[in-house]
Amino acid sequence: MVEKFFQDHERKMPRDSLITSENDKRSKRKRAKSKQETSRRENNEEEEAQLTGGKGTKARKDIRNEKTRRMEKEEVREVDENIDEGKKKQGSTKKGEKKEDGGKQLVKEKARDIKKKKHKKAETSSEPETSEEDDDEEEDNDKDVVRPECLSPEELEKLKEAVDERKKLIQSLRGKPWPMKKKLVTLRESQEFVEKYEGALGKGKGRKLYAYKVLMTKKWMKFQRDFENFKTACIPWEMKIKEIESHFGSSVASYFIFLRWMYGINMILFGLTFGLVMVPEALMGRPYGSMPRKTVPRAEEASAMDFAVLWDFGGYAQYSVLFYGYYNNQRTVGWLKFRMPLSYFLVGVGTVAYSYMVVIRTMARNANESGVGDDNSFNFSWKMFTSWDYLIGNAETADNKFASITTSFKEAILEEQENHKDDNIHLTRFLRVLANFLVLCCLAGSGYLIYFVVRRSQKFALDGLENHTWWERNEVNMVMSLLGMFCPMLFDVISTLENYHPRVALQWQLGRIFALFLGNLYTFIIALMDEINLKRKEEKVVKFNITMWEASLYNGTVLENSTAPPVTIHPADVPRGPCWETMVGQEFVRLIISDTMTTYITLLIGDFLRAVLVRFLNYCWCWDLEAGFPSYSEFDVSGNVLGLIFNQGMIWMGSFYAPCLPALNVIRLHVSMYLQCWAVMCCNVPQERVFKASGSNNFYMAMLLVILFLSTLPAIYTIVSIPPSFDCGPFSGKNRMFDVIHETLESDFPPWFSKVFSYASNPGLVLPFILLMVLAIYYLQSTSKSYREANVELKKKLQMQNEENKRKNKRAALKAQMDLEEARKTAQEQQRNNNASVQDQEVYCVSELSDSWMKMRLSRK
Q1: Whole-number Å distance between alpha carbons of 326 and 293
Q2: Whole-model pTM over 0.70
């Protein structure tokens, strides 16, 4: 009895397994029946083929083709049955997947119908076939063909929806939280689906037009992508700057971005001066040796080609298109009637106006970009989980990206440390006051040293420069270059007392070096003004002597023979006055050349040789040279930035008297980019405290705007107040340089225009206009300040709302967690109770069965 009970219980339990086995048996029976039917059909067809003797080969081929078709149909049916069973088991799926599967099934069904029609036509046709391979190729091609004429409007609409869904999936695939392998597989399948079925969405000419539009859209998108890559590749030194930024941080990269921007500005200035001043004078002006201002004096011809003379831009370099004094004062030159004096004046004014416009525009654009601000919430989480670019396929790019992420983490850690720093405020204030006092002492000492050297050089000039050594001749330039090289190092040492944030410390350092360079530059300008006054006094004497020489020459020729032709004197023998404009241009060119040479020598000695010594002597030295003294040098951002700014200031100041200065500066910046990039990557190490540069370079631009304004003041003063030289330059013979404007208005424009211009240039109208501009600027500044404050308030409110939402979410999460724990506890208790009841029932059943079994045993006995 007990054994029968357990056997019945076991028969009832595995019902599901029996059901599945029965389903498998049924499917096997169906397959066997289908195979028997196919074998019967094949036998019948073979018999028919044997009866038809003339068409035996064709019948065999048709039989083979029919076999393959039936096998494919059976496989498709089995796949469809499995898919239907899977759908019944899994239930409903996503909307997009249904549409895509529906589209695929529609396409498959229509392809099958097309194949059936084609096969029927092929069976009824009487033309002989060439080979079995051709039939197989046609069948393979027919598999991929989907004729839109065979699809109903509803099916076309479904297919279109499936294609659109695949397109949306391709666009949003990058943001899916899937593994990369799944993304690539899905992308490949979606692209194949779209390319295969996208052309079946129209009929006739409309289908062809739609396919043409799709093709042209793809080509246009590819062209745009390639063009964007081409534009990125055309940006000068972009990859170099990115590599430097990845290893040294954004503060060092900001210097090279600023250098590239300055290179672009100087290219425009060089194009203006070279195309509108130097080339017209060289091609259409009078040639060398035709007049005194274009000829080397007889006393200087012997040494005009010496290297020392050419290095100081004397000799043949002085009497060339490189300097102001070479240009002729003819109103028009060449067969084009080119207005040389007018062009010279307008190019000088236009370069300054263009520089103002570009600097102010760049500052405004940077202000707009920096006004957006960054959200520093979850900064480290964002950097950790979203910094890597998974589309990188180059090893070098991957290394740069890794270094960039590491540097950004260092910058963020430093920012976080500075935000939570707490120091002794009284000690910090005392040290900052002491540092500023030491800096003021350095500035005063450097200004006095330059003034002393300039006064000494004036004495040397009165005695004759050829009687002095090379150092005494170039003492002013060398002292200014050495001060610009060593004073920033001293300021850097002093700035360690102040304990500022690295970004604020950089701005203070830039301001101090700016004050140093500005004091040095204006001391140099004051010395030049004294030298200009001396040249003007000498010019008066020379002018009187020239008039006396001309009178004596004329009188001597007339007394000897009144009918003799006029005496022709070689231009090299004609006496000439000192051209103070050329002297000013030469001084600026020498200063720029000496500054450039000092910069390059500093790079080679201070960075390269230092790195070589530390690298190769570290193995045999008493202490660790890399960790201790002298160690590898760091890149001096402040000194290099200020060097660029003041070099550009000298270009703006001296380009009116030396048109070659923009060309020299372009060469200097081009060489500096490659040399400094090499020095940074090979000889320098990243700073110990890597900090993030500000979102814009407006601090650099502000200093550049100040130096632009201060550098144009001396040039404007000389143009407006000092009369030009009487025998050199395009403005010789005029009282002031700007008289060329009045001359042009009077001779080339109608009288009413000159009157309007004179009224417009009246100080009574200019001063109110300037006042109105100042008021407008003040109004716009105040409104922008109010907008900025409102933006800050909105940011604070958004941050408070964000924190409140965080608290609410945290409370909701805690509540949900508690509910889950309570539900888990109740479920565990219920499970324990159920298990206990089941065990009690099992024990009760076993005890009942054992009692009944014992009773039966006893009754039998």
Answers
A1: 6
A2: no
